[in-house]
Amino acid sequence: MRLAYFPGCVALDSCRELDIATRLVAEEVGIELVELEDAGCCGAGNLQEYNPEAALALNARTLSMAEDLGLDVLTVCGTCQLYLSRANVALRDPETRERVNRLLARLGRRYGGGVRVKHFLQVLLEDVGPRRLAAHVRRPLGNLPVAAFYGCHLLRAPGAAEDAEDPRAIERLVEVLGGTPVTYSRRTACCGFHVLTVRQDVAVKMSALGLQEARGAGAQALATPCPLCHLVLDAYQHKASRAVGEPLNLPVLHVSQLVGLSFGFDPARLGLRRHLVSVKPFVRALEDTEVVKA
């Protein structure tokens, strides 16, 4: 399987460990990631708000790069998935596509509308499939309780197969990897990333409530499909703890890192040392229950 890889900005910079983990897991399951080396940011909602036409053209440019390669686009970010997918839907309209193509023509590009946008979580569960995934699990999660944090963007992306109010994809993935999914009400809430620079206190309280509820439900780790959620839930967790008046100490893993751990990759290779909230307690618990498959 070959896919045009669009990691987005955060996974290539602030949380580059997520890009590293994605590449390791993709190679393990036979996915060839083809770089879109000159692709720009998806706009992250900010450009869409300020200049919708520029945002549409920017994402059409990225889609045209994948189309030139004859490949669908792979994302690892809920926000990238949302805005690339929305652009793709808008560009199905012939008049809209032609208008945007007049802009792309200045760059020698054109988009015909023939590309699909897929998130890594979807690819793992639907294209690779539970049976093939399970075959690569060398270190089952030992029934450790893992909570999902979907965030708000992935579930609102056009074409999302999940029920936005009651998604089950991460829970299914946790079960395939040998863990126990933890369900709680705020797993589909916003992490607060998009208000972080305006009202950090509000953003931190938003993430704190989700972390607190997941921890109270028994989770020993949180799995998210979005680098933006990962950044807020991990890097700002010390402030979240102060906001709710108690230590949270809940490790946050991108789904690619969770899969990588179950595949037997060394935690250091998955970039877990870069996390501000230590993942060591979860790794130790995993080692205590470890049954390594041949």
Architecture overview:
This protein has 13 helices and eight strands. The protein is an alpha/beta fold. Helix 1 crosses helix 12. The protein has two domains: 2-120, Up-down Bundle (Glutathione S-transferase Yfyf (Class Pi), Chain A, domain 2), CATH 1.20.1050.140; 130-288, Rossmann fold (3-Layer(aba) Sandwich). A four-stranded parallel beta sheet has the order 2-1-3-4, with helices on both faces. The protein has a four-stranded parallel beta sheet with strand order 6-5-7-8, sandwiched between helices. The protein has helices at residues 16-28, 46-50, 52-69, 78-90, 94-104, 120-128, 130-135, 169-176, 200-216, 227-235, 237-244, 255-262, 280-288, and strands at residues 2-6, 32-35, 73-75, 117-119, 145-148, 180-182, 221-224, 252-254.
The gist of it:
Helix content is 46%, strand content 10%. The chain is of the alpha/beta class and 294 residues long. It folds into two domains: 2-120, Up-down Bundle (Glutathione S-transferase Yfyf (Class Pi), Chain A, domain 2); 130-288, Rossmann fold (3-Layer(aba) Sandwich), CATH 3.40.50.11810.
List the helices and strands and how they pair.
Blueprint: E1 2-6, H1 16-28, E2 32-35, H2 46-50, H3 52-69, E3 73-75, H4 78-90, H5 94-104, E4 117-119, H6 120-128, H7 130-135, E5 145-148, H8 169-176, E6 180-182, H9 200-216, E7 221-224, H10 227-235, H11 237-244, E8 252-254, H12 255-262, H13 280-288
Parallel strand pairs: 1-2, 1-3, 3-4, 5-6, 5-7, 7-8
Highlighted features:
8 strands; Glutathione S-transferase Yfyf (Class Pi), Chain A, domain 2; 4-stranded parallel beta sheet; globular; Rossmann fold; alpha/beta; 294 residues; 46% helix
